[in-house]
Task: structure prediction
Amino acid sequence: MKRAHNLALVSVLAVAASFVAWFLAAQLKLVDPLFLPGPIEVFETAVELARDGYRQVSLWMHIAVSVGRALLAFFVATLVGVPLGLLMGRLPVVGAVLDPFVQFLRPLPKLALIPLVVVWFGIGEFSKFFLIFLATLLTVVVSAAAAVQSVPVGRIRAAQSLGASERQLFRHVILPSAVPEIFTGIRVAIGIGWTTLIAAEMIASSSGLGWMVMNASSYLRTDVVMLGIVLLGTIGYFLDVALVKAQRRIVHWSGHG
Amino acid sequence: MSADASRLPSAAPGKVELRGVTKAFVDEKRGRRTVALENVSLSIPDGQFVCLLGPSGCGKTTVLNMVAGFERASEGEILVESRPVDKPGRDYGMVFQQPHLFPWLTVLENITFGPRLTGTPEREYLPQANRYVERMGLRGFEQHYPYELSGGMQQRVALARAWIKEPSLFLMDEPFAALDAQTRLMMQELLLRVWESSRSTVLFVTHDIDEAIFLSDRIVVLAARPGRVSEDLLVELQRPRDYASVIFEHRYVELKKHILDVIRRETMRGMAGETETALETRP
Result:
């Protein structure tokens, strides 16, 4: 317990130290402010954007739009991906049909799909949704399929010896056994989804954090770029923290062997 | 050695019957066929506590898995209550080397897993479950999760979970092998106490000679490569038993010495066989 405490303190100190370094570098003009705006400048920009917005859209709106896009695509992907993955893991035929496509698409950089997606779906909301959806879906599908197959044989046999039918086996043993691994897959997926967001918002957009960063860079507003990066990172971090919290609550037994 | 169990006259067909059972695995990569069990015949009467004793690789677990319906015999047939085994069934209780509890369920939920599957009403299975909680010394831990328990306790939950069905046949695959020596002794005595009151048929796999003698009515010693019955012995020790008195009985010592001799002989033969094969395959 004490040890974990100390390590948390080390993390806090490391972050604080990097802020001090950043502050000093800007304050002492070690780096051109155009390349590296200082923390105070970024903070002022944050206050300014929160008040006046960026390009006629308030900062809160940018944040809401981005988080909304990512979460919607992420939820739909989970809703579709988990049952699909379970099916692939459980029924070899379904697995054999879908696996080649999943394995081809999963490592594919989703940026490469942007031109096609634009041609297919235009530059509206759906294109952005589709990209994030695809990126998260594949990760969720693969983890759910793997989770089904990694259920210990002994556990299955124990349930069979207690009289479980095929259906009961799936519902009461395989499904709950797979949940921890699916959760881990979902955590990875939300990270990937959040990353894909920037790419998705590069497709002609007029709002969202990803768009804000891209747009600001073309006007050399590095302070806005910096603010966008800090926000993207922080929100991504808290999404993960929320998921870890949920994971510990829901699959409290996992990690105990 | 007197008391050869296989030569006893048996009128009725046994609770469990193995007739000329052979199990072979085909290694597709090497194109080799490994015979795990060769022509094993065994008749286990109702209510007998039988230990399958043998070194690793003698196929004792394979016998159990085939009786349970997890694996199929390549040749021969396996009958439980005169019916061929074709799939994992409801007619037996099974305990494995690992507890294989359901980690998302509490102790009580684990124990009542079977009855809840079959839709038994709570007022029927709950008193039953409570009785086994008591017998297995799990009182006060009903609402704990398996990861909060020691290995011995987890195995007691597994025993209770299998026993609550009160099956007339028990299959046990080295259930105490993973426990420390102290806990193992306690578990063996506990198992015997519970068994005395039910007298169900037990097929118990172990590689521990003391365990086999202490627990069983009959010991079937298996030899390896290929797995086959090498000795079939009756234990003939008084019940109820406890370790403190049993280990000083003449019969105990005699049996242990005999089984050690059998195993040593088999091991020597196995080693000689291996050397021969190695010589044969030398270019």
Remarks:
- Chain B has a mean pLDDT of 88.
- The CA atoms of residues 19 and 41 of chain B lie 5 Å apart.
- The first strand of chain B starts at residue 16 and ends at 27.
